[in-house]
Amino acid sequence: MDITESKVSEIVIFGLKGRLDTTTAQSAQEKLLASIGGGEKHLAIDCVQLEYISSAGLRALLLAAKQLRAVNGKIVLYGLKEHIKEVFDLAGFSAAFPIFHSQVEALNSFKS
Amino acid sequence: MSSQITVSFKNQLAEIERLGQIMGAFAEHHHWSPQFLFEANVALEELLTNVISYGYEDNQEHEIILRLSFTAGEMTAEIEDDGRPFNPLEKAEPDVNQPVEDRPVGGLGIYLVRKFMTDVAYQRLDGKNLLRLKKQSVKEEH
Predict the structure, then answer these.
(1) Which residues of B touch chain A, with CB atoms under 8 Å apart?
(2) Nearest CA in chain B to A58
(3) Signed CA dihedral, B52, B58, B63, B67: sign only
(4) How many Å apart are CA A66 and CA A109, to the nearest integer?
């Protein structure tokens, strides 16, 4: 899995490319939590190139969401492939993680 | 690749990557849809991860056997390990309607296994855990 990190105004964008599974979720989790620990409150996860996610990946995102809630932050996702979206729906994650089609929509959601 | 394969995994998490490669090759051979492959891969990853992470109290190397077959549109998978007795089906299901932030972090793996498999059965046999999974491929409607 490749993880990229960039920043647009006050929003940190993490790009997840490949497979977010038992073996890769740990490093993704560390990067997300380090960013939040460093004071970032607005996270957008770019899932355009995310091919696979298992419960380990869901857990990493859940931990990030929990930490963000404690500081009144927010995490959003965009560009999910249909089978990835299905996992979020099944797990009941869709309610807690706003999901957008495009990056523009995702970034705009922080404005209001 | 025949319609039935047997693979031996060590009790190391790095094996999850190899599982993905094996599943990918098996899926290609049997012309699985990407969706079918994804769901089958996730289910087997969750169960294998459980065995590797929680199945052993010693630090020895153990062998976990996966038997995978695909006949007449149905996948059958068996996972056999010599770890401590553990029936993952006895784990309580997470309440997926509870707000995510209030939920305990665990339990989702087995939940996905149940959702993605047509049938899951557990048996303790000759000092081993044996999980039998079935997944029926459904023709997509157009």
Answers:
(1) 13-14, 16-17, 20, 34-35, 38-39, 41-42, 45-46, 49, 94, 96-101, 103, 105-106, 108-109, 111-112, 115
(2) B108
(3) negative
(4) 19
Please report the ipTM that was assigned to this predicted complex.
0.92
**SS3 of residue A5 by DSSP:** strand
* Interval A13-33: pLDDT, tens: 999 999 999 999 999 999 999
Interface size between A and B, measured as CB pairs under 8 A: 71
**Closest B-chain CA to A75:** B101
Contact present, B84 and B97 (Cβ < 8 Å): no
Q: Has residue B3 got a pLDDT over 50?
A: yes
| pLDDT grade for B141, boundaries at 50, 70 and 90 | very low
Type of residue numbered B105: V
Residue B93 pLDDT greater than 90, yes or no: no
Q: Please judge whether A59 and B115 are an interchain contact, meaning their C-beta atoms are less than 8 angstroms apart.
A: no
H/E stretch holding A65: helix A55-70
Strand, coil or helix: what is B126?
coil
